[in-house]
Amino acid sequence: KDTYPIFDLLKLSDTLLLSGGSAAVEAIFLDTPVIIYKCTSSLAHNPLLEYPKAVIVVENEKEIALALDKVRSPNTINTLKNHWHRPITDTFGDITKDPVDEFINFARTT
């Protein structure tokens, strides 16, 4: 059975279209724009719905088609990327810091 790690697929993707889950955060961390389908008739959790400027949110087929066309624009992608720092930091913490140093500092203060 051939399988591919999700992170490799996200990195190779031009865009990720999904309704829920943490893959949206992982996608922007890997520099892949995200379109979130917000289905009002079912329960789907997507943490990036709290950051509407970092993703494109759609609710129907027409909006999906428009979003897929829109996300091909470098200007749209750059606008989205300008809002990725906060959800990445809120999810993963400060990625510029060495995690070993952070752990040692945490251990010293507790």
Strand order of the largest sheet: 1-2-3
User: What would the principal axes of the Cα set say about the shape?
Assistant: elongated
Number of strands: 3
Report the mean per-residue pLDDT as an integer: 88
N-to-C order of helices and strands: HEHEEHHHH
Q: What is the number of helical segments per DSSP (H or I, 4+ residues)? A: 6
User: Helix fraction?
Assistant: 40-55%
* Residue share in β-strands: 5-15%
Low-pLDDT sequence parts: none
Structural class: mainly alpha
- Rg, Cα atoms, Å: 16 Å
Report the biggest beta sheet as strand number plus sense, adding barrel if it closes.
Answer: 3 strands, parallel
First-to-last CA distance: 47 Å
How would you portray this structure in words?
By secondary structure, this protein is mainly α. Helices cover 46% and strands 9% of the residues. The protein contains 6 helices and 3 strands. It has helices at residues 6-12, 23-29, 61-70, 74-81, 85-92, 99-109, and strands spanning 16-18, 34-37, 56-58. The protein has a 3-stranded parallel sheet, with helices on both faces. The longest helix is centred in the last third of the chain and has 11 residues, at 99-109. The protein is elongated, with a radius of gyration of 16 Å.
Short description:
Helices cover 46% and strands 9% of the residues.
Would you spell out the secondary-structure blueprint of this structure?
Elements: H1 6-12, E1 16-18, H2 23-29, E2 34-37, E3 56-58, H3 61-70, H4 74-81, H5 85-92, H6 99-109
Parallel strand pairs: 1-2, 2-3
